Structure formats: C-alpha cells, structure tokens
Amino acid sequence: MLLMQKLSTILLLCANVFAASDAEVLAYVKKGIASNANVSNVEVTLNGKKPVPNMNGWQAYFVAIDADVKQGAEIRHVNQNGTYFISGDSMATELVNIKTNERYNDTLAPDFPKQFYTKNNLVSGNANSKHKVAIFSDPLCPFCHRYVPETLSYMTKYPAVFGVYYFHYPLPTLHPAAVTLTKAAIAAEQAGMDNVTMRLYTVEVNANEKDESKILDAFNKTFKTKFSLADIRRPSVLKQYELDQKVAQMAMVSGTPTVFFDGKKDSSKNKYKEVKVK
Questions:
Q1: Which of 7-16, 132-141, 147-156, 261-270 has the lowest mean pLDDT?
Q2: Neighbours of 22 (CB within 10 A)
Q3: What are the b/e assignments for 238-269, b being 16+ CB within 10 Å?
Q4: Domain check: are 254 and 206 in the same one?
Q5: Range of the domain at 90
Q6: Nearest residue to 39 (alpha-carbon basis) of 2, 6, 1, 85
Q7: Model-level pTM?
Q8: Of 12, 82, 209, 214, which residue has the fewest beta carbons closer than 10 angstroms?
Q9: Residue 11 has pLDDT above 70, yes or no
Q10: Taking a C-beta distance cutoff of 8 angstroms, is the pair 177, 209 a contact?
Q11: Mean pLDDT, residues 242-249 taken together
Q12: Phi first, then psi: what are they for 143, rounded to 5°?
C-alpha cells in the first residue's frame, strides 16, 4: 500500500466535518493525520480545488501533505498529494459516479500552473504554439517507454500546433536508476545538446541499478558524452531536478506518464490525436 494511502486511512472520514471553509478542511485533514502516533510535523497546504462534474454540490480539494513518518527505527520525511471530496458537512477520500463509473480521484487534478510553461522544459514547438502539452515521465517506466517517443515524434512534426513541455519525474521506489538518468539528461540539456528527451529513452540500463557510476556509464555510452558524477550533482542540475518535482507536486502528479492538454489533465493521454493538424 502506498504511504499516501496509509496516511489517508488514518483520517476519520465521516459525515459531520462541518460546513467547511478552506481553512477548516485543511485543519481537519491535518488533525486526522497527526492523530497517528507514528506521524509528526504535519503540514497540509491547498494546491487548488474545483467542482466535481456531474456530482452536484461536491468539491474536490487538492492538498499537499508534508510529514515525518516513523517506520521501525527510521524516520522518513514524506511529501505527498491527496484529493479530498467535500459536500456540505461530509468528506470522502474517494468519489465514484455510479452511472458513468468515473473515479474522480483518477480524472480530476488542479489546472496546470501556467507559470511553469518555461523554456527550460520546452522540448518541441514554442510558446506561441496553438496547444500546450505538459508531459511528466519516468524514462524507465515501461508505459512511458512506449508512449513518450511515439507521442513526441508525432507532435514535433507540427511545432506551430503543439508546444510540448517535458518534466522529469522519476519514480525512485519503482525504478531507482531513473533518478541518475534524469540528472544526466538535465546536465545534457543544460550543455545545449539536441533531442535529449527522445534519446533518453534509448539508454539501456537495469531499472533497479543503484550504482550511479554504472548508470552514468550507460548514459554516456548512448549519448557519447563524458559526464562525471560531479557534473550531474552541479547546483544548476539539482535546481532543475527539484523544480520538476515541485511542479509535479503542485499538479498532483502521482504516476507516469501524466499528461496535461491545454492546462487540463488528460486521462486518456491522447487528446493530441483529436487535433486537426492540417
């Protein structure tokens, strides 16, 4: 079970929250999580909210949760997202439309923050392209391995139509090697290399590899570069890496690939195919 799910089960998710203000909702969530003896230093912030479509009276609250969690003898700091649904004096962590079978936890997300459409993340098209597409991906995610190269190769043919913004979002618990690969890719981007994102998906390395030198060797072999561990630990590389993680948190990204099309989460990941390009 994901740690976020564990934290969520701590909450007493019942009716009688109150006719809540934003501050009261956040305080209630914080109190519920902090009631667990293994959780301390809890901070809960609101990333956004929006009405739930076709569910009259329900609002989705998107929150970020920071906490220290004791696991055995170890204390880990966690920073994770949660979605809570509020209607009057009721709260729920999951909401499903029984007529359409839509699970709103999967389909709803805050609108993509406009300030993060930046040139540092632009991999195709330009700021004036008709449509903006933001992609969050882990280069060692099997689905991403199929999806990202295919999607990019299509959209790069139409730069006036699609401005594609790529955000590195490695999943270290699933693919430990992806973190080092990501930092190497950022170093390559900052060095002015072309087509880094597409080439990143051709690096052959065991996703479970944890030896940074071996991972970097695989990257250098593919890119014909000589990046060192010091290169991928430069402050500028770490700053961009941390920024991508921050954007992912604000956009409530929890898995890969996650796609936003014109600022809205695209659960199908294929809205770009509906656009007439000629």
A1: 7-16
A2: 12
A3: eebbebbbebbbbbbbbebbbbbbeeebbeeb
A4: yes
A5: 3-107
A6: 6
A7: 0.83
A8: 12
A9: no
A10: yes
A11: 93
A12: -65, -45
